[in-house]
Amino acid sequence: MALYVPGSRAEWMAKCRRAEDLGYDVVGVVDHLGRVAPIPALLLAAEATERIRLNTYVLNASFHNPVLLARDVTALDELTGGRLEIGIGAGYVREEFEAAGIDWGTPGRRFGRVADVVAELERAFDGRPRPPLLLGG
């Protein structure tokens, strides 16, 4: 279930608890401008819940430095007790790239950034089990 984060901490935590109480398996947070940043939102969702999986649905590889993102993802996985699922994609909203001052480039270049992030995640987890990985557009 993908949730849009409401305006307050208490509302977001209540929504996550309710999803878990209703039997949902996964809470996903999108990575779009104008929305709350997914990593802090998922950390708070983990604090509010006990078993539900937490998903980045999906991180735009072009918006993140691969080394720093791998650092943040490994920390998030550790701090959530291994409940993380990682979604990484190439991005599809050209206007977001323009608003962020990031080169839109070709599809091949955008998917190359996805490959860079995946490679860095593999290095960061260094043979340890890494969270499930979803590759998106």
TrEMBL record:
<dbReference type="InterPro" id="IPR050172">
    <property type="entry name" value="SsuD_RutA_monooxygenase"/>
</dbReference>
<dbReference type="InterPro" id="IPR011251">
    <property type="entry name" value="Luciferase-like_dom"/>
</dbReference>
<dbReference type="GO" id="GO:0008726">
    <property type="term" value="F:alkanesulfonate monooxygenase activity"/>
</dbReference>
<protein>
    <submittedName>
        <fullName>Coenzyme F420-dependent N5,N10-methenyltetrahydromethanopterin reductase</fullName>
    </submittedName>
</protein>
<dbReference type="GO" id="GO:0046306">
    <property type="term" value="P:alkanesulfonate catabolic process"/>
</dbReference>
<dbReference type="InterPro" id="IPR036661">
    <property type="entry name" value="Luciferase-like_sf"/>
</dbReference>
<keyword id="KW-0503">Monooxygenase</keyword>
<feature type="domain" description="Luciferase-like">
    <location>
        <begin position="14"/>
        <end position="121"/>
    </location>
</feature>
<keyword id="KW-0285">Flavoprotein</keyword>
<keyword id="KW-0288">FMN</keyword>
<dbReference type="Pfam" id="PF00296">
    <property type="entry name" value="Bac_luciferase"/>
</dbReference>
<keyword id="KW-0560">Oxidoreductase</keyword>
